[in-house]
Amino acid sequence: MYHISKNDVLVGDGKRYRLLKVEPAQDRAYVIDINAPLAVPVRWLHSKLRVKLERKELTLLQKSTAPEASPRAEPVGASLKLCERRWTLIQPLLEKTAVLNREGRKKLLAARAAEMSCSTTTLMRSLRLYWQGGMTKDSLAPSFDKCGIARHHTQADPRKAALRKVAGRTREDLKPKFDYTEELKNKAWEIAKPLLAEKKSSRRNIFNKVCKVLWSYIDNDGKVALLPKPSPRQFYYELDKRHGRVAELKRQSGPGEFRNDFRGKLGNVLMEAIGVGHQYEMDSTQVDLWIVSKDDRSKIIGKPTLYLIVDRYSRLIVGYHLTLDKPSWDGAKRAILSLVEDREAKANRLEVPWKPELHPAHGHLPGQIILDRGSENIGYDSDRIADDVEVDVINLPAHFSSGKGTIECSFRITHVPLRDNTAGYQFPAEAMRRHGDSYMHDAEFDLDDLDAELYQIFEMHNQKMYPGMPLAEEAKLAGVRPIPLQVWKHDQSKAMGLTTKYDAKSLEAKLLSKKLGVISQNGIRLNDVFYTCDHAEKNNWFVKKAGGRYPEVNISYDRRHVDTIFVQDLVDPRRWHEAHLTPACVVYAGKSFAEVSVSVSSTRQAEKEADDHNLVQQLQHEHDRAPRAAKAHQKTQADIAASNGASRTSGAKDVRAKEATGRRAAQAAVAARVKPSSMAQSEMPPSDVAAPVLKVDAARAPSRPLKVAIPTRAFDPMAALMEMDDD
């Protein structure tokens, strides 16, 4: 015994019927032919239907709701609108049994058509779709997927194929459409396939090369002529079908840009960041604002660089650094130090209100910091973050800005208030535009003014509500609003173990460059510069060691400034002491180590040149004295030979006095022959008066030579020279 119900499909006599309604009490059943294009409901006797089923003249399909063809997709767009329209037309009719009978259907359709301003044919077509399609709302959806007719098809009757219309639009020039056969498509693909391996080959270039091979020729005049060919749109369509649009995007943009701009983005930051303080994102950008000099505001000095640090989980801006320098490790280091710097002192310096409740992340370092592959982030100095500070560093792949989308969006949050309220802001698009507006002449802010402006912008950001911010379900249930400050404070208790606290001085010592210094009697030597500190002097580090070597010491220093370094304690490695230049090296104050290196190099070069210069002078002296020394040696040897072995020191005093007297007499004679100047000539004694001559007995000559003064009335340089004792 068969149990039949509404929507069952019955098969018999080569046809398929759908059971629309069953009324056993009235012995009636309504069916409709599923395959007939103009089918209408037919009334059968219920008892007769059961007899046919028992005799197997009709067969009941096991899946009563199975559609005739493949299942339709859920209607969307235009399909959904048409489906809703058809449902609105027929919904009141479906509630009435009379629509299944021929007698009452005509009146119902006429009345509904007049009410909805449509034809009875439209209503009947919609009813037929509903009944034949399974009596569901989705059965009213149009079969757009079946639209269009294949040009090359196979049919039993070729005469019908010739009458079928070719799919596609009519050409504007009314020329016959190009028959792009499968054979031509395969040939074009064989030519285009090797060209796709080259990134520089554009789609248009590939199309031109295929046309050159397949659809062009050289005519009798030696000119290029074209054969009938597909349009570029046809060619690109087939190229995308075979090569794939995704593969074409990867080829044109490269794997890095494809991953950044075209890949699917299915997750959010909560997939990686497990709480506040777990991951910070840091990056730098150029602020699109022209600034002026602090000392002379009529001078425009350019655009500054901004380093920004954002908590990935809460979007809280936790630190920043503004500088006039280009992106460098020093700027990145200062941005990290801003996490622990004295915020109150900075607020007072910038003359902005200090609100400690708006800085809940102050003093906290994250578990991980996410950076790009900028030169300042992959250099040796950046290893200090991971090695000394013990924070995990994640360097994202190149061209992957979407991997740190939180901070990329934060830059825009910074620029929008500046653009709206600050003079001198320049739109990024205007920077590269020819004959664009000159925004630099509107500049009014110096670096400190901009720093104060950003300070308050970031405080405002931390208090603003962002409806699109992803929140954990637990935070939503707790009533936490999508405000960075509230999210941080709510999640802070759970994230206690994710952050680390440092004081500013110890963190700066860890982030600076490291090198071994040498303790000497002149101070702590680092790169030829000497330093001292109270701790070193108190513990006698510089006292000369008796036969021992001076110890080496770990030093942290900033390459940009020689004024101050940090010295590790020799006893307690956890302590660092701040050291300053010794008095002998104060001349280097305010310079960088690079500048000091140049100065020291020039000093060393001067020392080397001095050695060479002095050597030349010494060699020249030895060359000049060689004849004199040889002559003196020759005469001395001759006199020694003539003395017949007499003592060389006997009578030395008498000989010395005699020789001194003779030298003075010779010098006086020379002075007498010198003609005096016109000024001194009037005061000199007459020429006929001889100068007094002092006679000295050689036997009674004193042991020390006498000074003989020539009486003159005026100063005579030559006379003063004569008075000098040769000895």
Question: How far apart lie the N and C ends?
Answer: 156 Å
| Biggest sheet statistics | 6 strands, antiparallel, barrel
Largest sheet strand order: 17-18-19-22-21-20
CATH superfamily of the largest domain: Ribonuclease H-like superfamily/Ribonuclease H
The average pLDDT score comes to 79
The tally of structural domains comes to 4
The CATH topology of the largest domain turns out to be Nucleotidyltransferase, domain 5
**How large a portion of the residues is in β-strands, by DSSP E?**
5-15%
For the record, what CATH class of the largest domain applies?
Alpha Beta
Note the overall shape.
elongated
Poorly predicted runs: 64-71, 151-156, 158-166, 678-727
Number of helices: 24
Estimated helix fraction: 25-40%
Please give the number of β-strands.
Answer: 22
Which radius of gyration do the C-alpha atoms yield?
53 Å
Helix/strand structural class: alpha+beta
CATH architecture of the largest domain: 2-Layer Sandwich
3D architecture notes:
Helix 6 (about 180-195) crosses helix 8 (about 230-245) and helix 14 (about 405-420) crosses helix 16 (about 445-465). The protein has four domains: about 10-145, no CATH class; about 180-260; about 270-500, Nucleotidyltransferase, domain 5; about 510-595, no CATH class. The chain is elongated. The strands form six sheets. A six-stranded antiparallel beta barrel has the order 17-18-19-22-21-20. A five-stranded antiparallel beta sheet has the order 4-3-2-1-5. The model is unreliable at about 65-70, about 150-155, about 160-165 and about 680-725 (pLDDT under 50). Strand 18 (about 525) and strand 19 form a beta hairpin. It is built from 24 helices and 22 strands. It is α+β, with helices and mostly antiparallel strands and about 725 residues long.
